[in-house]
């Protein structure tokens, strides 16, 4: 297949184009180009924490990974009330400057993280409930719209109205109404300038196609203003009307394993917001899989990664992944990373994140090659038989969990161990230890007092 000759019509937007390089139905190949960054799809983007990919400094991101897209949530930066929000008051184009993101990676702005933490309040017609580092807040839709023109992200996602609980028959229509209303505001009020054109991805809700069919039909009328689609239910990609098929499709429906990624590729997803990379890194797991399978391997079912907390890796001088040429595998071995994990040294997670992103990058490259050869379905079947369906279970204690990494639910226990515990030792009640300490202090005071008395007596004699 000559990928440069398929659907090669000139793009309507000189700053951004998405060109389909294969059939528009089922698994598909494409090429997304924006601001001198080119992404061959299917591919992935990395979710950020306060504008940075977890565990990776920007020089590591630039020098040791091939990440070409970063998903940034505005709620990461809204600690204070307007107009005192620092990021709101920066010069134009401040998102890249504020986060110091290398120019080799696209910045994709949304309102909330993926997956979002359940908020104490509900959305309204004019505001979105968010979680900031200092608690729950309401983000006015007008603020989001106005800040887009100032921050100038490469891609901006329209805001979806998604409740915390499963929507009922009355809540579904309200979700569609609000999402359409908010998208209209974003399209009509976002300011384009001579040096900046907003590239807006319309959100598709996690509802049945029939429940939002009217909204999806209205998107065909706005297609000249849209640059792509953000799907919160990836299965909707199979039901999109023909007019929307040539828009790039981003999955905001977090795929939790490579098996689920392959299912979404089958549906026709182009970009994936992958959070399980960082989840594996936090757990001390080095991803270790190839698509469809390693050429020289037996028939036994293999795990998707290696838990480096195991003591058996303390003397293993092999690389984190066989055949991997990432920086971590070229320069270090399992025993070293296992030592760093046990010592709680942050370099362990830096090396793991570099390795895991490389594994995912090679995985998507192999997926694209499989689609091009026409053997995708057969390769998916081989992959499914050779690798376990779920990621390895977390065994070790990773870095301290952040608030947005788990849902806010009442009555749940603490997620992190206490840094300081009550006075006591193994097998000795804290009360007994307290009595022993009191006795030791009292004895020490008496000894000091006796010493002082003897000293004064000698001086007075």
Salient structural properties:
metal ion binding, alpha/beta, 3-stranded antiparallel beta sheet, QTRTD1, Queuine tRNA-ribosyltransferase accessory subunit 2, globular, disordered N terminus, 461 residues, metal-binding, 8-stranded parallel barrel, 12 helices, TIM Barrel, 2 domains
Question: Would you give an account of this structure?
Answer:
The strands form four sheets. Strands 4-5-6-9-10-11-12-13 form an eight-stranded parallel beta barrel. Strands 1-2-3 form a three-stranded antiparallel beta sheet, with no helix packed on it. The chain has a two-stranded antiparallel sheet with strand order 7-8. The model is unreliable at 1-12 (pLDDT under 50). α3 packs parallel to α4 (171-189), α7 runs antiparallel to α10 and α9 crosses α10 (347-373). The protein has two domains: 16-405, Alpha-Beta Barrel (TIM Barrel), CATH 3.20.20; 429-461. By secondary structure, the chain is α/β, with parallel strands linked by helices. The protein has helices at residues 58-64, 94-99, 141-151, 171-189, 213-221, 258-267, 276-282, 327-331, 334-342, 347-373, 376-386, 430-460, and strands spanning 16-20, 30-34, 37-41, 43-47, 69-73, 106-110, 127-132, 135-140, 155-157, 200-204, 228-231, 249-251, 271-273, 285-287, 305-307. The chain is built from twelve helices and 15 strands. It comes from Morchella conica CCBAS932.
């Amino acid at each position: 297949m000559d990928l440069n000759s398929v659907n090669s019509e000139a793009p309507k937007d000189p700053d951004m184009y998405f060109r389909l390089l294969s059939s528009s139905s089922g698994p598909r190949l494409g090429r997304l180009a924006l601001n001198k960054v080119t992404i061959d799809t299917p591919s992935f983007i990395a979710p950020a924490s306060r504008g940075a990919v977890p565990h990776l400094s920007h020089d590591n991101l630039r020098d040791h990974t091939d990440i070409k897209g970063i998903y940034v949530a505005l709620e990461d930066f809204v600690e204070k009330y307007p107009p005192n929000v620092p990021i709101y008051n920066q010069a134009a184009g401040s998102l890249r400057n504020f986060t110091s993101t290398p120019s080799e990676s696209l910045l994709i702005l949304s309102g909330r993280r993926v997956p979002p933490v359940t908020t104490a309040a509900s959305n309204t017609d004019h505001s979105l409930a968010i979680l900031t580092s200092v608690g729950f807040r309401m983000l006015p839709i007008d603020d989001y719209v106005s800040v887009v023109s100032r921050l100038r992200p490469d891609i901006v996602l329209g805001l979806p109205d998604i409740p915390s609980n499963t929507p009922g028959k009355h809540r579904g229509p309200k979700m569609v109404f609000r999402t359409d209303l908010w998208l209209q505001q974003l399209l009509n009020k976002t300011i384009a300038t001579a040096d900046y054109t907003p590239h807006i991805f319309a959100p598709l809700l996690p509802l049945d196609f029939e429940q939002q069919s009217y909204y999806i039909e209205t998107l065909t009328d706005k297609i000249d203003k849209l640059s792509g689609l953000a799907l919160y239910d990836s299965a909707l990609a199979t039901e999109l009307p023909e007019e929307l098929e040539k828009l790039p499709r981003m999955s905001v429906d977090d795929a939790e394993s490579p098996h689920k990624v392959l299912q979404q590729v089958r549906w026709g997803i182009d970009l994936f917001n992958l959070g399980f990379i960082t989840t594996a890194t936090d757990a001390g797991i080095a991803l270790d899989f190839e698509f469809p399978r390693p050429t020289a391997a037996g028939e036994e079912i293999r795990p998707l990664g290696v838990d480096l907390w195991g003591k058996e890796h303390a003397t293993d001088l092999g690389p984190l992944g066989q055949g991997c040429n990432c920086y971590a595998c070229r320069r270090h071995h399992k025993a070293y990373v296992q030592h760093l994990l046990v010592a709680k040294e942050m370099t362990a997670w830096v090396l793991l994140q570099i390795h895991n992103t490389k594994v995912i990058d090679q995985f998507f490259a192999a997926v694209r090659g499989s689609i091009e050869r026409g053997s995708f379905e057969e390769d998916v079947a081989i992959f499914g038989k050779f690798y376990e369906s779920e990621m390895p279970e977390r065994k070790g204690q990773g870095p301290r969990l952040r608030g947005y990494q788990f849902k806010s639910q009442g009555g749940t226990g603490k997620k992190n161990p206490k840094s300081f515990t009550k006075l006591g030792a193994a097998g000795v009640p804290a009360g007994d230890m307290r009595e022993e300490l009191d006795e030791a202090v009292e004895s020490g005071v008496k000894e000091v007092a006796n010493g002082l008395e003897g000293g004064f007596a000698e001086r007075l004699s």
